[in-house]
Design goal:
single chain; alpha+beta; 33% strand; elongated; disordered N terminus
Length: 676
């Protein structure tokens, strides 16, 4: 196992590399999950189990015991093909990792001795008020023994043993009280000694294997659980320790006391005068009831890895007896499901090279268990790049309980809209591509329509010729941005899709045409303007000579003038369209919509340089200085009445406009009016 985590140190002790074992057992990754987009700045992760899932599940052992299985049957289920054998009595050496100060300090107790293992010589240590604590530390290549009274200074003490060899403390009661950095005291059975480690030293507890297990079993499993489960744990822990001892490549110790091996807490710990026992009656009974029994495979003690919970399915390990199989016992007593939320910021902090995190995607699984099994690889997709990491790395980075997990598919706006409209049986049809980024939002192709959504808009579709035009523009990357409506019935029998900055309007005769920005706002908000112009028949352009936006509609033209769209329709529009570019520049642009003369009853259109009148089915114009004088006189309300034509050349280089009631002549900067 190790207790709850598979550490690299432990895996280094196994006889077969993980990658080779996967190859030999025929493992192949399950299909990749769909990518999941970030939702409200986070991802929901759900999983099952606690630990790596190899070998025995502790919660599963509890569930199996509750269902009547004997400890031998429990171990037979989790380590198939193995047998139960019995070993001779032996001891084990445990590295006490909490003692980090490169020395070994113990309480002075009655019967305390210093032992030199190689010479098998003892030195009984004195007691009394001058001997509160003893300490062994390294001094170069030798060892030094020191003593001190309570609160006093350390003083050297000659034990009469070889200083070049490691020493061990033991007591007549077989329990040594080790003072650890920080002041707490932990009691250990057997002997506790100091061994050289590089330029420093390690504290090692040499203890009878059965006594060692009394400090392991309660640390690995609650001993209040069903007795058969606790006994199965005792045998698995014993087997695991022996396996590590037999295959250890380290010098001076066999196992450590943490989850990197299996947890060992000793007899008891005292902190600030309060003693907490680590050994329990239930744990001791389980050890004694299975004394010296181990799990074996083909004459060798098995690597009996275990974890708290396998989430309902064991994981394939490095040995034939560590198989992947469904576990009907894990979850019997208590569900092992879990959920966490990971924010995009947490992910970006873990892998800053990807930029803003947008998606997570499980790219490979081991094929055994829920959702296709444990995660073998996962891709983090960001705004700058993506990175693929192992499931173990992802789990460890965020302290997740196991790598039997999934990224919960978020109900995106596109997902919700598709479901609301009937899914594959609705108007959208089936998805034909995965949801993907576009601009600052998302899009997804369906067999009939395309859905778009953004942080500012819900999901809306485009279809047919409007969709084709939107695609040609660059979809949401264009100035239109995202749709704010589905395609629907538009003005004058058209079809329309509305967007953040405009619309696309389609009819058979005009095709799919874009109206955007100011033209769109005027057209959208002014029903009279819509009725006047009809539907767009061309795209907005910048007039070559007038330097103003112009757009053609089915009933005329629209000019951007004075912060609004001004229509030019009917005969006026046709007349303007027949003019040359230089003539159009000379007339300017309309300053307001067509009106009707109150006195003459004819249509009138004002331009920046003059006035047009519709008389006898023709356009009659006044412009420039003549138009200014005409308007000063009251225009068509004056005695001059309506114009009869367009300004023309007169005698002597003059310009003349003829009216119903006279003429206006412009010459030498002066306008002369003659009435009939």
């Amino acid at each position: 196992m190790t207790a709850r985590r598979a550490a690299a140190w432990v895996r280094a002790l196994t006889t077969t590399a993980v990658g080779l074992a996967l190859l030999l057992t025929g493992w192949s990754p399950a299909r990749a999950d769909d990518a999941v987009a970030v939702r409200d700045g986070s991802f929901q992760i759900e999983g099952s189990g606690y630990g790596h899932g190899w070998g025995m599940s502790q919660w599963g052992a509890y569930g199996a015991a509750r269902q009547g299985l004997h400890w031998r049957e429990i171990l037979g289920f989790y380590y198939p093909g193995t047998t139960i054998t019995r070993l001779d009595a032996s001891s084990i050496r445990v590295w006490l990792t909490a003692d980090t100060d490169a020395s070994l300090q113990v309480l002075a107790e009655k019967g305390l001795r210093l032992y030199e293992p190689k010479a098998r010589k003892y030195a009984t240590l004195p007691t009394g008020s001058s001997y509160a604590e003893w300490r062994v530390r390294r001094s170069g290549s030798s060892f030094v023994l020191e003593r001190r009274a309570r609160g006093g200074a350390w003083k050297r003490h000659a034990p009469g043993l070889s200083a070049s060899r490691p020493w061990q403390f033991d007591t007549s009661d077989d329990v040594v009280s080790v003072v650890l950095p920080g002041g707490r005291t932990t009691e250990y059975r057997g002997r506790v000694g100091l061994i050289a480690s590089g330029s420093g030293a390690r504290t090692v507890n040499t203890v009878d294997l059965e006594l060692y297990l009394r400090g392991v079993v309660p640390a690995e499993m609650p001993t209040s659980w069903h007795g058969e489960a606790v006994r199965a744990q005792a045998v698995a822990a014993r087997s695991y320790a022996v396996r590590l001892r037999e295959h250890s490549s380290t010098s001076g110790y066999d196992v450590c006391d943490t989850t990197a091996c299996q947890v060992y807490k000793g007899v008891a710990t005292t902190v600030s005068g309060r003693r907490t026992s680590h050994e329990t009656s239930g744990g001791t009974a389980a050890v004694q009831g299975t004394s010296r029994y181990v799990v074996s495979y083909r004459g060798e003690v098995a690597l009996t890895q275990f974890s708290a919970s396998n989430g309902g399915h064991t994981a394939r390990g490095d040995h034939p007896y560590l198989t992947a199989r469904k576990d009907p016992y894990d979850g019997v007593v208590q569900s092992q499901a879990w959920k966490v939320t990971l924010t995009a910021r947490q992910l970006a902090a873990a892998w800053p090279q990807v930029g803003t995190v947008r998606e997570l995607q499980v790219t490979a699984r081991d094929g055994a268990g829920s959702w296709g099994g444990r995660v073998r690889s996962l891709r983090v997709v960001g705004s700058k790049s993506s990175v693929t990491v192992s499931g173990a790395t992802f789990r460890g980075r965020f302290g997740l309980r196991s790598d039997l997990l999934r990224v919960v598919p978020t109900a995106t706006a596109i997902d919700r809209r598709w479901q609301q409209t009937g899914g594959a049986d609705g108007p959208l049809g089936r998805p034909t591509a995965a949801e993907r980024d576009v601009a600052d939002g998302r899009m997804r192709e369906f067999s009939r329509h395309t859905l778009f959504s953004s942080p500012r808009t819900d999901a809306y579709w485009t279809v047919g010729r409007i969709r084709d035009r939107y695609r040609a523009l660059g979809t949401a990357e264009s100035r239109l941005r995202f749709p704010v409506s589905d395609e629907e019935a538009g003005p004058h029998g058209s079809r329309i899709s509305r967007f953040e900055n405009g619309a696309i309007i389609f009819t058979g005769p005009t095709g799919a045409r874009v109206v955007r920005d100011g033209f769109w706002r005027s057209y959208r908000d002014d029903a009279r303007l819509r009725d006047t112009l009809g539907v767009p028949a061309g795209e907005e352009v910048a007039h070559a000579t007038l330097r103003t936006p112009v757009q053609r509609f089915s009933k005329g033209w629209a000019f951007w003038q004075g912060g609004r769209a001004v229509p030019l329709i009917g005969g006026f529009g046709g007349h303007w369209n027949r003019l040359s570019a230089s003539e159009q520049r000379h007339r300017g642009v309309p300053t307001g919509p067509e009106t009707r003369s109150a006195t003459k009853g004819v249509p009138v259109q004002r331009f920046t340089t003059g006035t047009w009148f519709w008389v006898d089915h023709r356009v009659r114009e006044t412009y420039g200085k003549i138009d200014e004088r005409y308007r000063q006189l009251g225009a068509e309300k004056s005695r001059l009445g309506l114009p009869l034509g367009t300004e023309e050349a007169g005698p002597g280089g003059s310009r003349v406009s003829r009216f119903e009631g006279g003429t206006i002549t412009w010459k030498s900067g002066k306008a002369t009016v003659r009435y009939r």
